[in-house]
User: Fold these one by one.
Assistant:
Number 1:
Amino acid sequence: MAGIVVVFDFDKTIIDTDSDNWVVDELGATDLYNLLLPTMPFNTLMDTMMKELHARGKTIQDIKEVLKRVPIHSRIVQAIKSAHTLGCDLRIVSDANTFFIKTILKHLGIRECFSEINTNPGIFDDEGRLRIFPFHDFQLSSHGCERCPPNMCKGLIIERIQASLVNEGKKRMIYLGDGSNDFCPSLKLNKSDFMMPRKDFPVWELICKNRSLLECGVHEWSNGEDFERILLQIINSIILEDDTYKNGTLNLFSSMEFKAFESITMAAHHEALPKVLRVPH
């Protein structure tokens, strides 16, 4: 195994939109959503919207069909498959919900690429209505992080994953995200890790303003081609730095993983790793 954990945000990172807004808009409830948005916490809002859509006669299948049409760049799907083939441990940390994420991943044929999905629970009740609950029940207690929304601190999730890596024998982490709630986890990354913020999105702006707070390497991306190229180049660079690989042994990989490494990373040798995002002057 490559000993690399790759953590993805979902909305506007794996898919090219916000899944909550997409479902609301496609099912014709945008006006009510905009009316209620300033009045309640976001998880409560989405739970309320699902109740309204159910009252309007929208079914589970209607929601699934909308999710199957969500925009996504084909190279992002291929990048995920390639990283998984190379032996990376892929995980999701997202403020969407389990039903939306799993439905989309299954439709794209990449559900089994991910070992873990950390997100808000989305389950159907006995009446067939989708219920959305917060990842962290902020009505009972606070998670204690002032940077993050009350229902989820992604930084705490990353700390939990990091604590597990020692026992699992994994060494390095790559994090990809776009939103302001992806800034907190970027602060938890170590100097041997990498952050891939989406350029001109909130987390990229926060990192540009606070670059000195991050220990990790930072490589920005803009679109699906960037996503694939930069992610595979970083994975390639980590693998080649491993002393086991340098010493000419193949213990790092199974034979299948080694063949995948040779074929997938061949293109990466044609371009250098993108320059690190540095502190602006």
Note: The longest strand covers residues 89-97.
Number 2:
Amino acid sequence: MLNIKSIWNIEIRKLLRRKDVWIMLTMLGIPSLYSIGVFFNSSVVVFSGDEKEYAFSFFVNMFNFVNMIFIYFFILSLIAARTLGGEIENKSILLYTQRMNDRKKIYKAKVLSTIAIFTLMCVVFFIVSILMFYLFAIHREDIISSEFIIKDELLTLLLWFLSMYFIYLFTICFSTMLSSFFKTNTAVIIFSIVFIIFIFISKFPAVKYFSFQYYVSELGEIDFADTSKALPLFLANLGLVSIYSFICNFIGIKQFERRDL
């Protein structure tokens, strides 16, 4: 008899065999190429800042670089939408529903497995970033420090990273919800439009507080040693993403439970 753990394990194995998941890992090229560019003093790599870069700040800044490239949100949306919507379209979802009556657990297992895979990608991204930093970038002593962390800046950098990470979790929840209503391609297009709207409204005073991108941008602009400003911004972003994700999961589960498969 299937349970949420066994479905999660099956989904993890299926995700690891999918091409779009491996395409997502091209984000590892960003810290790799940047580090090599710094090492060779390439004109393509532009460094701006009064302080020297150190290992943990390099990782977070590289992740922010990824965050600014929409294609990775698009790919993750496609991964999430195909995980549920793709199986609804090709009827392979029946392999679960015929052996397990609780569709809510099937939905949860698919969302959690996608989150787990993306979290694993973040861990790999961290390892690659630190490795490339100490292999290449560290040789530029004029702009690079050999320190791993600076204690006063650690909390703010960590909160900044988590705020960006939460946006990807929302991407998974929102795209999975959309795939319970629409075909995969339609779900991804709708996600893209809504996501661009969130970025757009982050620039307008009256509605910017409803955009998670506003809080991420603000965290990137403050003094990293000033945790008194970082924590309220992080908590506001966490609350916003949590509300959005809860609504998406609630609607997605209800739709999946009553959908005719």
Note: Residues 103-135 form the longest helix (33 residues).
Number 3:
Amino acid sequence: MASMAQTDSSSVISAIRASRPARGIEQPLLHLLWCPWTSLWLSLPVPFRRMVYHSLWWAGKRIYGRGSFFTQHAPFGLFLKRTDPAILRSGSLANIFVAANTTIPVPTILDFVDDGEYSMVLMTQLPGESVRQPILDGIITEEYFESTMRDWLIQLRDLPIPDPQRVSSFDGGQCLSFRVHKDPFGPFPDIASFHRRLLRMCPAADGQRLENEVVHKSYDKSHRILFTHGDIHVHNILAHNGHISGLVDWDCAGWYPEYWDYAVAIYHIRRHPFWVGCFSRIFPQYEDELEIEKAIWDVHCPW
């Protein structure tokens, strides 16, 4: 595990250096403290940097209140996250990739360190909170939300793919999808193998019934592999001063069948007409795929 964590850390550090993260830092004090010293700081020993980040985590709890076991707001416009090394590595690399190749506002990844059982990433904190309340209050209109999400998803789906067959995380490893399971699974050599995994989640009788009755409507179609956020949810879309300000949490991002972002978005919030209507208009071509997904949801809960 130690050697793997070292590999995880070094690959992300290399991507951070190549991405020139100073361009994404807008908070003036953070820009002053970080930008002139980025290369020097990343060259310091990991134990020292980790100690500093633990201190920032502690300070963040005192100033902003406790976050979760995995995340914490920190001083100077920073945000800390820790989780499984492979998951955090892939999510960090996906975040850097999106920042470099789209206009979607995402956090700027500043550092990545091994932290024992977990890894820890330091990033900037985007302005705003979950888009949920501004939607409920009517501050974010349906037209504006749909237009923004359509633009962002088109940009993601236009990104170059490394393998037109393989279903995997961004870096080619195990998939992570809370629609499927709380733990990583896969990867898969092709979409058919991925679909078989979805059916195996169902009780045997239900899986066979779905395969006989409705699966062919979707699974027999030809689907492209596309870059996918993988966790489109109100808590991962931020709003600030009446504007949609960012898309966060790229740990589930990867290379999935083209309908997957639509299916996951509806899975998370399937009864709110604002949400369902927006994504159904963005993806009107995937109604058969959604029908299969709903049939699976009726007989399987990943939690």
Note: Residues 2-124 form a domain with the Phosphorylase Kinase; domain 1 fold (CATH 3.30.200).
Number 4:
Amino acid sequence: MKTLRYSLTIAGIAFGSSLFAQSGFSGKIKAEYVPFSNYVRPIDSLKTGSTSDFKRIQAAFSIPISTTLDELGRPKIWAVGVEGSYAKMTNRNYEEPLFPTEMLNAQIGLIHSRHISKTWSIMAMASVGVYTDMEEISSKDLLAQGGVLFIKHFNPRLALGVGPVLTNAFGVPMVMPGLYFNWSTQGRYKLQINFPNGIEFGAKLSDAVELKTVVELSGMTAEVNRNNTSMLLGYQQVVAGLRPEIKLSKSLSIQLTAGTSLARSFSLTSRRLKDFFKMKDEADPRFTTTFYGSAGLSWNFSKR
């Protein structure tokens, strides 16, 4: 669980697969809402009368700056990736402040992808960003990361990638494992499993409408000061629901999601290397299950 928690922190500050280099301008904007739910005290797993909600808006863009073809006609792409997330939380009936009221994640980076053989490709990235709880923005809120994923394409529907990711999230530069997995089926009924994003199962109702069942993992990260010590505060949520996707054009679509937040929690981790393998004395603070809703707009103007 310790390694998983750090891996989720890395996932929160690294570019997601949605920003893999594209040959055309692509991106998405998404607004999410989780209403008030009860805080579960970690020391005894007691559901308290304290409540918190969660509202977030996200935006991500991939802007190609160079696209060429290799000798087999496959693209070699350089792109600039930009991501931003702003969350606002209202916390009620707490005896003392436990959670932030705002979080901001914003990063910009360079992404490169190319094939290196018939079945292998690489995706390299380097980025820098601000990860803050908005109380005080300083140089400690600046986190940089870079890495290379070596991706094996078993067939057009299945790909697995691994590689090193270098980050200063833990104070000193440290190499963490990076992982990418994508598997999808074709036809009227489609199943897609993607790590680190989630799972989708959908049915094509018409040329313009597709109805999906989704399970998604997402999070945010903020550098915080606790007892004059720099630490990383992580927010993680797992949601599930129904999502109709409506194509407005060949390159533009909207997604509406209604469902439930299966898991929602905060974690506080030390940025000191010597604390990396230490086990926590108690569970992370979490919240009870409640409604989840979101609306998104996505586009991809790549040549097809």
Note: The chain has one helix and 16 strands.
